[in-house]
Specification:
Number of helices: 2
Distance between the termini: 72 Å
Order of helices and strands: HH
Helix content: over 70%
Strand content: under 5%
Radius of gyration: 27 Å
Structural class: mainly alpha
Length: 73
Amino acid sequence: MWGEHDGMGWWMLFGSVWFVVFWGFVIWLFARVLGRSDSRESREDAALEILKRRYARGEITKEEYEVMRRDIS
């Protein structure tokens, strides 16, 4: 009677797969949230640096610089 269910069985394999899927989703979600905040700040910084260089080279006027800087921020 007790010998009929030796070994892991399909339910143990099924549970292991769901365990890996669950933790994979948690890690992916965590990385996604952290990556989103960092990338936005770096894009704003990059855009502001480009704007500063254009103003320094004289490509845009002070008024244009101020308007674009407000738009970026």
